[in-house]
DENN/MADD domain containing 5A
Amino acid sequence: MTTGFSSGSCRFADYFVICGLDTESGLEPDELPIQWLQTDNFEQSPLRRTFKSKVLAHYPDNVEWNPFDQDAVGMLCMPKGLSFRTQVDSREPQFHSFIITREDGSRTYGFALTFFEEVTSKQICSAMQTLYHMHNAEQYDILHTPTSPPGPEDQRHQHSQTRPVLHAAPSISRLQRFNSYDISRDTLYVSKCICLITPMAFAQACRKVLQQLHQAVSCPQPPPLPLESYIYNILYEVPLPPSGRSLKFSGVYGPVVCQRPSTSELPLFDFAISEMFNLLGVENVLQLFTCALLEMQILLYSQHYQRLMTVAESITALMFPFQWQHVYVPILPASLLHFLDAPVPYLMGLHSNGQDDRTKLELPQEANLCFVDIDNHFIELPEELPQFPNKLEFIQEISEVLMSFGVSPEGNIHSTDRQTKLRGFRSVDMVSDKRNGNLSSPLNSYLLRENETIARLQALVKRTGVSLEKDAGSGKDAQVQCDEEELKMHQLNIHVREVFANRFTQMFADYEVFVIQPSQDKESWFTNRDQMQNFDKASFLSDQPEPYLPFLSRFLETQMFASFIDGKILCHDDEDKEHSLRVFDSRVDKIRMLNVRTPTLRTSMYQKCTNIEEAAIEMRVAKIDHTALHPHLLDMKIGQGRYEQGFFPRLQSDVLSTGPTSNKWAKRSAPAQWRRRDRQKQHAEHLYLDNDQREKYIQEARNLGTTIRQPKLSNLSPSVIAQTNWKFVEGLLKECRNKTKRMLVEKMGREAVELGHGEVSITGVEENTLIASLCDLLERIWSHGLQVKQGKSALWSHLLHYQDSKEKKNETWRRSDQPNPADGRFCFSPCRHIQNISEIKTDVGKARAWVRLSMEKKLLSRHLKQLLSDHELTKKLYKRYAFLRCDDEKEQFLYHLLSFNAVDYFCFTNVFTTIMIPYHVVVVPSKKLGGSMFTANPWVCVSGELAETGVLQVPRNTLEITFECQNLGKLTTVQMGHDNTGLYAKWLVECVMVRNEITGHTYKFPCGRWLGKGVDDGSLERILVGELMTPSTENDERMCRTPPMQQSPGMMRRFIFFPSCQIQEGVGEAINGIVKHFHKPEKERGSLTLLLCGEYGLVWALEQVFQHGFKSPRLFKNVFIWDFLEKSQVYFESAEQRQATPDENWQTRVRHFCRFMRAINSTSRNIGKDGKFQMLVCLGARDHLLHHWIALLADCPITAQMYEDTALIKDRTLVNSLIRVLQTLQEFNITLEASLVKGVGI
């Protein structure tokens, strides 16, 4: 993509570069790092070794808007250095492109053609001969190894070697295999490269220019003009085509056409997307695309440089309107392999030698890595990768487009390989094999049927524009054929890119509604940019279809999305918008106009792309808008410009170093500083920032939280590498600080909002996304500076090393019969739990489960501190520059993680819902009236948000039980009771304690009531509502979930009378809590049982209503609300029999009330009078009858008998207000927990 190109240049090309062998410095071995390579450079035969290449010349010397970076260009033109061949080896020219990304995000493109020239230097040939003599001497020693049969030890040693060890007698054939170069017999060839450095990626045009230049020195006939004329023309006289226009200029042997999209079209993209689909297939491409959108580490792997570049550029182009924000090196030079250790998201391409398979490639970190083996049609994905929305329909739509152009959706890797070997000058595969041979003449059709290879060769030569016949017309036809193929490539590119762009316009059609414009002054917004929310993520996600959430919740957290929204905030009008944003917004506007549905109503219905505009390209190709100046003779001295066939000459620098004095396209008079600022103007007016602030924003705020974007190629000294690693350490610490702060702010919810931070609440999907990103960060930290990688998860590997180390030390202490002063059980007890969970299969999954469990236990910082306290182990596992060996940063990192202890996370319990968990239950009897004489058999039934246990018998003598069952989730209620057997079946229970033995969570279920006939309310069982205990000494003073007055019903009855206004507020708060519960997304709702029966819940609130003004009971006699309700039932049933009231609505309400009362009274459960009242309230809320019953009871004569005149139930105004509040529950579908209504068949 060209979104970040250097707009200071108006010329087609900035530099022409020649790289190759410097005969003056001789052969210098390329000392490549071998940390991730399986073969040593010096173990290979000299012809297979790599040697240092150099930039031999570049023209001009420098341009001010794009300073020449000699080291970077030299590395990327010939990433593996010089290669040598002999006359028996294949020496076909190879084209590849590359990219240089500057620290400000702008890009420069390079296009290189590598070919082989004969070595004429006798010194170089002699040096190669000497290297072979030395190499053959080593191999001769190996050949003279004794021929005795190898023993078992030798066999094992032999199998362990990376290269075969020969044990045979010397033979001529073997010596010839090693002795592959003889100075007297063989011709030596060395690679050379010519390259164009351009501000925009016109890949097809540059390929043609370079091919024709190479052809000029390869053909027996000299070109019409000296080579300097053509290179001068491309450097100084060919402009960039204007937006929406096409340009034709002259190559050595034929015209070259390039065209540039208009400002209303998708950005320029001149690579063949079809090649990526041929190489990988649609399924793999979409998985790779998903990884790129979620900013994972992506490593492309191929033995073809152009494939690496094509796949990388294609994937980033398909991201429109978003842009990759992190390290982007499609071709990673061999000298930069240490950058694979970078603990940041990256998209890199690694060259393969075509021999080693994936298992031999040792990578420093793989926990969050997407590995793409391009040549073998294989992709290795990170764990827990969410599915792209509407994946199947999306694949179907892409496949239809590909098939319409003759491209197989499954990929065609073998076809592509054959084409690569045959195509010579071709840079990328335009079409599949079938269309490569699709020629029109009868002779060609016959050749295609009889000999596919010959037909393909002929088609190939014709597409390069070279005529095989003397007839001029044939060459013309071939040129037309080439243009048609290029047009088809552009058409396919447009179709595929439009399909991808349509996905984003559909998913983000309403994104502008959720953009948060800064409320404070712009300077404050800019200063605190890292801490500000720029998008209402929670509201946006609540509008999305359920299947989209796993992907979208993670995508909204990426830097590319944050930068996209920043661009939206910073632009003032259409003129200020960046090109991608302007085009995307115009498409979103069209979607809104076409869609008749409500704009904010989201559906998961798949909508295909219907708006593909390819006519513009056809028009630009059919009618050329501009023609550049033709190459012409330059002011060169007589004798200059001559060349020797087969050798690309050193050009005349005096004529190529400067351009024409007057050229309307050059625009070189303007200072480079102004051109750079022109590239950044879209960030200016809206914020009214001065220039210094604007520069700072471009450099820093564009890269939120990451301090390094690109590897600097120009200086690879140890000090620079150390400084780069230090930047990594600083970046990781900053990212940790930002992540912990974001997670805490989101989790704290309302309190955070009141303090001026962010949004009201965090959804479960969002929380899970943030925790998953924290796990990824921890993996990157633990992978940084790793000495030897073991397994895919560096964190889990470190934990196992620590566990083994401590166990060995513990064993040593046990043998010495002394206590171990540094017992490590505290840290690795969670490891034991995770290892015992059979559902978790991989190291990465175990590490993430360990992090989640430690967070839930509020021990993450403490565990990691203990893990890192073993300094010997850390030194053994990590290099000196690693993050974990930077003491100050490590302490700050642990301090940030410590802040998670301020909030409650259930990130383990809520994710691993199917695992078996051991629970421990303890029944605590009253200390004063203990259960020592208790004779009945107690039981409990534990319920949680996910499941319940069923009845569990508790041993009477211990009152404890441990059992294992599937994860219950957060615990909500405990049903407890006894069977009323024995002489003394009365039991006063203080509370029930339940502990999750894996997470360590302990729940307290207060009771404080009797269970027994003839005592309290006569209940033999009670439903207790619990609360999670916090590890604090203040537990006894804290209010509990079970209401303190007339509990669930649990606690001892204490008559504390509230004024009527306070009771009204209590009812309102209880109803409000239930309303809020139902306005949350279904997956984010807590326990409704707590809102109904818990502290200050609906049952408690209505209990206060009925207790207010209740006439005092007589001495030694308790009167319960249930007594009043039973008397009212008797009255209603008698009144109904007498038909005293003819009102049909009144009779219907009476029948409902009496039916529920009878059903509850007839239940087999012995839940007591307070328990029956609780059940009636819950059932009335479920069936939306509470407000009817309140109206009935307020008019009932029994109320006048049992309540004082000042009672709330006798105040008509207050009763009407209560009825209106209760009516708000009618719109909600209330589902009751099974423990609340067990035994009632209504």
Summary: DSSP finds 43 helices and 23 strands in the chain. The CA atoms of residues 107 and 195 lie 16 Å apart.
